[in-house]
Write a structure and sequence with these properties.
heterodimer; A: 94 residues; mainly alpha; F1FO ATP Synthase; 4 helices; B: 2 domains; two-stranded antiparallel ribbon; globular
């Protein structure tokens, strides 16, 4: 009984971590747009290259945040949650 | 010509830069439990207070020890660069030190304005501590920034600074500001206040930690691959993960060096923008006028 419950729990945690990383789509699209626009801007005004590049990298790093939230949830689900939930399960089954 | 005493102090300062890092490596070697295969774990815990002190158990973990070592190293570096300053720059180290100080003051002046002109040392300290903490993983140590507690500590410090300047306009004005533009927005404004440090901490932590996790996964994958592909080689070569040579180092340039330095810059940049943007100039000046104090102007942000 405990083994079955543990198996289901670990599998669901893995699935949850995978689902959490769907958040990676957003920053991918967003940063792609940002870089595309930056390339356009540099093409139009090549003398502004350094300014545009630094602003773009800054913006990209900030746009990454939402993806990182998903990543942190996934990391918590994989590395931290099993320990906590195993204890809860053992207590419940006893 | 450098005197003997000057050189002796120099050697002492260089030792101050290198020895803390070496001590951390020795500590890590002594405390790491033997394990096989890929092992992704958080910071090692050197000491924990048993029984509990007050409400919780206190831990002395690798991230604290490493960040103190980094602080001592940076102090040594600063003392080394400023050792033997002269009015006319003749040594390389003085030129480097002057260049660093000028760059930092220009950055602070451009982003925060004239009122915050003397904030250069604080911003430089945050940037250097963050960058070197992330770069310490190049010598095989655990990055303190890969621990959420460390980055959260810095973010809370920045949060207090932001709050300090927001309260300059008067507590009541701050309270009223939460209910703007319409009272329904109050919960969202409140969440927005708390979200600043949380997002700063998680951004820094997530970037460094994801780099570390991906590096470990790639390392273990390459080990497995080389065992299955090159297992037929004779002698000791069969056990050696030969495919692991090279590729992780190339990826490390992005995950460790670029990402770490970038996040340090962004953390400092966000600190500057948030603190400088938090000052309610109009309300503050009205309050100062009531107390017959001179008006403050932030020149050219």
């Amino acid at each position: 009984m405990l083994e079955l419950a543990m198996g289901i729990m670990l599998g669901l945690l893995g699935l949850g971590a995978g689902c959490a990383m769907i958040a990676g789509i957003g920053p991918g699209i967003g940063e792609g747009n940002a870089v595309a626009k930056a390339c356009e801007a540099i093409g139009r005004q090549p003398e502004c290259k350094s300014d545009v590049t630094s602003t773009m990298i800054m913006g990209c790093a900030i746009a990454e945040t939402t993806g990182l939230y998903g990543l942190i949830v996934a990391i918590l689900l994989i590395f931290v949650a099993p320990g906590t939930f195993t204890g809860i399960l053992k207590d419940a089954i006893k | 010509m450098k005197s003997k005493k000057f050189r002796r102090v120099d050697y002492g300062l260089i030792a101050m830069m290198i020895l803390p890092i070496l001590a951390c490596i020795v500590l890590k070697v002594l405390f790491t439990p033997p394990s096989e295969g890929v092992n992704i774990s958080g910071a090692l815990v050197f000491w924990s207070s048993e029984p509990e002190v007050g409400m919780t158990t206190l831990y002395l973990s690798e991230s604290q020890v490493n960040s103190w070592a980094v602080m001592i190293s940076i102090l040594g570096l600063c003392l080394y660069l400023t050792h033997g300053l002269t009015a006319k720059a003749v040594t390389k180290r003085q030129l480097i030190a002057e260049w660093l100080v000028e760059k930092c003051e220009k950055l602070v002046g451009d982003n925060m304005g004239g009122f915050f002109a003397e904030w250069g040392p604080f911003i430089a300290a945050i940037m250097a501590l963050s960058a070197f903490s992330s770069l310490i993983c190049l010598v095989g140590l655990f990055s303190p920034t890969g621990d959420v507690n460390v980055t959260f500590g810095w973010a809370i410090l920045v949060f207090f600074l932001i709050m300090h300047f927001k309260f300059r306009g008067g507590l009541w004005n701050y309270f009223i500001g939460l209910f703007k533009p319409i009272p329904v927005f109050a919960p969202m404004n409140l969440i927005g206040e708390v979200a600043t440090p949380v997002s700063m901490a998680f951004r820094h932590y997530g970037n460094i930690l994801s780099g570390a996790v991906i590096s470990a996964l790639i390392g273990s994958a390459l080990t497995g691959l080389s065992h299955s592909l090159l297992g037929w080689l004779p002698g000791v070569f069969a056990d050696m993960p030969l495919l692991r040579v090279g590729l992780p180092a190339v990826l490390s340039i992005y995950f460790d060096v670029f990402s770490g330095v970038m996040q340090a810059f962004i953390f400092a940049m966000l600190t500057m923008l948030n603190v400088a943007g938090a000052v309610p100039w109009d309300e503050w000046n009205t309050r100062r006028k009531k107390r017959n104090k001179p008006e403050i102007q932030n020149t050219a942000a």
